[in-house]
Design a protein that fits this description.
Blueprint lengths: L1 H102 L1
């Protein structure tokens, strides 16, 4: 009878240990899934950072190009203003010349 009780206690102990090991295994599985999810999230963050850097470089490049175009436009406006002034000086000179011829 004592051996049956002992066997019964051992079986209960083994079942309790098995249950405990199953819970530990479940927790380890959940932890490993969490670690994988964190690794994927980190990879996505790294990819987003790389994309952000690439976009920022392109924006900087476009900003530089816009600055270059602005400089060219400003130098062109100086030339255009000079041509405009010369045109009106020539017109005024021509009108003054015609007026002096007409007055004589």
């Amino acid at each position: 009878m004592e051996t049956t009780n002992l066997e019964k206690l051992l079986q209960e102990h083994l079942k309790a240990d098995q249950s405990r090991l199953d819970r530990i295994e479940t927790k380890i599985d959940k932890l490993s899934e969490t670690v994988v999810a964190i690794a994927r999230a980190e990879e996505k963050l790294l990819n987003l950072e790389a994309s952000k850097r690439e976009l920022w470089d392109k924006v900087e490049e476009h900003d530089t190009r816009l600055d270059d175009h602005e400089k060219r436009l400003n130098s062109g406006s100086v030339t255009l203003n000079t041509i405009n002034k010369l045109f009106w000086i020539l017109i005024a000179t021509g009108v003054a010349g015609l007026a002096s011829i007409w007055m004589q």
